[in-house]
Design brief:
The protein has nine helices and six strands, in the order E-E-H-E-E-H-E-H-E-H-H-H-H-H-H. The protein starts with a strand and ends in a 6-residue tail after the last helix. Strand 5, helix 3 and strand 6 form a beta-alpha-beta unit. It has a six-stranded mixed beta sheet with strand order 1-3-2-4-5-6, with helices on both faces. It is globular. It folds into two domains: 139 residues, Response regulator (Rossmann fold, 3-Layer(aba) Sandwich), CATH 3.40.50; 66 residues, Arc Repressor Mutant, subunit A, CATH 1.10.10.10. Helices cover 46% and strands 13% of the residues. By secondary structure, the chain is an alpha/beta fold.
Length: 228
């Protein structure tokens, strides 16, 4: 078990919104991410850790976002950490270091709220990704998004006898996800609370058997559940 590396909290300002924990096996990645995060005014607190580690279970020291580097750790461990984080209400941003096909396979198997590649990682892109996740969006690098869409076009449904049943409200939510709307925007469009939107989106993901919104959109377009 590794001891967590901590850094002083960033000086609070009116723009402070969230706290971030970084889990990465590579020391260089941990250090680089820590430096980038200290440059983001909206990050109130940052902690870095090396796997294996345990997230808090008593409600104390729970972070808003987990940045999880998937390089140098097993997919099983990454999935376990991501699932545990989301069960605590923590958003998950995955970092990839590999080819796009491998990244796509990881994205499909690990619960998450957004994706970045180490090649695209800068303080600016990291800040945009964190803000996007906070607003209910699903950040994704352009290369990975293009690869995902190409993969969707090449494949058809395998072994599915019928499409899953979605309630009218769930169908509306799915259509708005396909439009790229955030939770806040969906709430306005459907005239419901953001909490209600979270429930709808969770139901849609469960019925489509997708770990995240991006893959749910891909499945919806692939299976003709909504108009392209």
């Amino acid at each position: 078990m590794y001891a967590p590396e901590t850094v002083p909290s960033i000086v609070e300002s009116p723009s402070v919104r969230y706290s971030v924990v970084v889990v990465a096996a590579n020391e260089v990645h941990r250090h680089g991410l820590r430096v980038m995060l200290t440059k983001i005014p909206s990050v109130a607190k940052c902690r870095t850790m090396a796997p294996p580690m345990l997230l808090a279970t008593d409600g104390h020291d729970v972070f808003d976002t987990l940045i999880l580097s998937c390089s140098d750790i097993s997919r099983e461990l990454a999935a376990s950490l991501a699932s545990r984080a989301q069960s605590l209400g923590t958003n998950v941003l995955l970092l990839f270091d590999g080819n796009q096909q491998e990244s796509l396979e990881i994205a499909a198997s690990i619960p998450s709220n957004g994706f970045l590649t180490l090649q695209d990682l800068t303080a600016e892109s990291l800040e945009k990704a964190l803000d996007g996740i906070r607003n209910g969006e699903v950040p994704m690098s352009g290369g990975l998004a293009a690869h995902l869409l190409a993969s969707v076009r090449r494949h058809t449904v395998a072994g599915r006898e019928r499409n899953p049943y979605l309630t009218p409200r769930e169908q509306q939510a799915l259509a708005l996800l396909v439009e790229g709307l955030s939770n806040k925007q969906i709430a306005r469009r459907l005239d419901i609370s953001q909490h209600g939107v979270k429930r709808l989106v969770a139901n849609v993901l469960a019925k489509l058997n997708c770990p995240n919104r991006t893959l749910a959109v891909a499945v919806a377009l692939r299976d003709g559940l909504v108009a392209p």
